[in-house]
Design goal:
2 copies of one chain form a homodimer. With 421 residues, chain A is of the alpha/beta class. Chain A contains 14 helices and 13 strands. At the A-B interface, helix 10, strand 8 and strand 9 of A face helix 10, strand 8 and strand 9 of B.
């Protein structure tokens, strides 16, 4: 690496200003943010992104899926390949202010440093703010559209419901057809990098500053609806009932046990149940049960899925209920590029930061990108492991370290790209 | 009993005409009715009641709680005591056409027969259509106002919400103050009788035509909220979670077991759960769990309540959750008058109808009246035990038998009243 490049660091004050302004959009009283996809607060954060990119002198673009980009032409020519630095500005309902936002401000700051120092790289740089990473509407919507892995059927049966999707698209001025047109030619991409909070406690437990992500765990989900019979709760004896709640509740307990016993390291979650008709004095006729499962290993993910389906059917039989099964889709585990991991490790070591290889339990846009180009992720510690919550917190020093590793990884990738070993 | 009285029967055709006209108000396509309190369909049914009463030559009255009455002065003098024959014209949302309506048409028909045959009784007769039995607004609103058991606080925190109550009262031209003024002097009442469908399967199972209600079960309810911690479902290991769903679901299974094993004949129902935040990928932080319990015995009801509370606390401890407890109130079991039960049994036997003593699992206006005068209820079989549903059905022969038992019970009560044994 040039001597000039080894002295480059991000401007921590400027990045912190960006971070704090961004945390105001949809701020909750408790230090978190509420920025579901295309909500008013999210639209304001998107405006802010374009304003900042313009102010920094980057080209601003957006695609048919609502992904927004700030482009720095630091490559040999405008048509050179692009290294994408991404994350997202949407949040889960009542989420934290670091998830997604940190990756965006660190990427924006990295481009500013490259521009201000007139660094030439073998590729252009593009900050990309992906649409609906968190899944208010679909989940990984923008990145899967860009990578070509989004199926039209997914848009017809989105996890947030058709109505929410249509309202969201109207608010953002995009359409189903435009989303599917957002597919990018993989030949134009040299790679993908993302800085993110860990959302777990492994870095803290290991007293490490930097996580080098080896794989983004696979994930799948189902809506199981147990169907019994609505009866008067005062006149129907317990043994005469077809009580949908019994099947749903038994499933919620048994899937946890089955994951703990049979699938160590994998996770399951029953995140929601919707009772119908939902009255004190009526036996529940229908209980919709939302089940999610994850694993870092493709074979284990499939075995876990089969066990969940078998369990749901067994609970329905046990309580004489009908069972309706709707798949919420499945993403296979996505290994990160070993070459990119090597560049991240080199950066962390140069900065004397203790690093740890780890699997990402959470889903990320990187898993969409991993299918079409070398992708890598840098994690920084989450205090208490908290995330998707206003309690989410990362010390600023860790954010700064992560951003410096991101910047240096970009430079390392440039070096390796121009001087293949 | 006079020879003349023993040959009296209701006019089945006329009563069936009434029943069928009434089933048209708020008729759903499926054979049920949708007549929530003071809805347009309910107001029409109430108009019909007054028209029929006028046409039959009864005096028509209404009180400050919206209860409507048709009065026949068949007693020794206008100021004689009154035997009330009641039920209700409102329905649950998308309910059945028998619940409430059958009791009203049978009572109206009984008064017509007494009038047409110039029967003299030791009391006057009054058909009473009680307001909001089903609880669109408050539940047992009219009967608890009449009996003086309605507290002003209940009107301030009604189960249907303040807004619905205010809208309903406006539609019916009554007020909170007028409701509380509807209290009647118990000294003016000689008793209360009601014919109703069973809403269960015990009569059918026993091949009996007439149920002689011994008690209206007591009922209570709680909203238990289990509080854990919202965490990312992909990054938080199963053992690190404080998952509110585990406590709620374990409670739903265990309260059923505890009622089955420890409280035979009592019922419990977990009719609703509300998850928060309620997302696939977030560990549930709060799960509100609606639990209702019923028993025919006051002591058992209290023991069941204590067991439910103990169980809820134990589940919270087991999963390291906090527990918030809100009581939804409690009504003690209401025994029916033994003297009235004897008159019902005498009537059924005279008509050679097999009868069965049973507790009412459902709540009824009779439980309000039991506090101020001798009260009794006559049940007829419900096909399939279905109720609060368009599936609700009772064969007309059973309706007719029930109405004849009601008429004869009135006459029996007259005999016993004038010739105390």
């Amino acid at each position: 690496m040039d001597k000039s490049k080894t002295d480059l660091f991000i401007n921590s004050e400027r990045m912190k200003d960006d971070f704090e302004v961004l945390a105001e959009f949809g701020a909750t009283g408790e230090g978190g943010v509420h920025r579901p996809t295309f909500s008013p607060a999210h639209l304001k954060a998107r405006d802010w992104f374009r304003d900042q990119a313009h102010a920094a002198g980057f080209e601003v673009k957006s695609d048919g899926a609502g992904n927004q980009s700030a482009i720095l032409y630091c490559g040999p020519e405008p048509g050179s390949k692009t290294l994408l630095l991404g994350s997202h500005l949407d949040s889960v309902p009542n989420g934290g202010r670091f998830d997604g936002a940190l990756g965006i401000v660190a990427a924006m700051e990295s481009l500013r440093i490259v521009k201000e120092n007139h660094i030439k790289l073998p590729f252009n740089l593009e900050v990309i703010d992906f649409t609906d990473e968190e899944g208010t509407l679909v989940g990984l919507l923008g990145s899967s559209a860009l990578s070509g892995s989004l199926a039209r059927e997914t848009l017809h049966n989105p996890r947030g419901g058709r109505e929410a999707l249509q309202e969201g698209l109207n608010a953002a001025g995009i359409t189903e057809d435009s989303i599917l047109s957002a597919r990018r030619d993989p030949h134009g991409l040299t790679g993908y990098l993302e800085l993110h909070i860990e959302q777990g406690s492994r870095l803290l437990n290991a007293r490490a500053s930097i996580g080098v992500v080896t794989v983004v765990n696979g994930i799948g989900s189902y809506r199981f609806t147990f169907v019994g019979r609505a009866d008067h709760a005062g006149t129907t004896t317990l043994t005469d009932r077809l009580d949908a709640a019994q099947g749903a509740c038994s499933l919620a307990l048994s899937v946890r046990r089955l994951a703990l016993v049979g699938f160590p390291g994998s996770t399951v979650n029953v995140g929601n149940m919707i009772f119908s008709p939902g009255a004190f004095n009526i036996v529940p006729e229908r209980v919709q049960t939302w089940v999610e499962y994850r694993s870092s290993n493709s074979k284990v993910l499939n075995q876990l899925e089969a066990s969940l389906l078998e369990r749901a059917r067994a609970e329905a039989r046990r309580f004489s209920l009908e069972l309706e099964i709707e798949s919420g889709g499945k993403h296979e585990p996505s290994p990160m590029s070993e070459a990119v991991q090597a560049c991240i490790i080199e950066a962390a070591e140069k900065l004397s930061l203790k690093h740890l290889p780890l699997a990402s339990g959470a889903g990320h846009d990187a898993q969409s990108l991993a299918g079409i180009c070398p992708a890598g992720m840098i994690f920084v510690p989450s205090e208490g492991g908290a995330s998707h919550s206003p309690r989410e917190f990362t010390h600023w020093e860790d954010c700064q370290n992560g951003a410096n590793v991101l910047l240096r990884t970009v430079l390392n990738m440039g070096d390796h790209d121009s001087h293949p070993s």
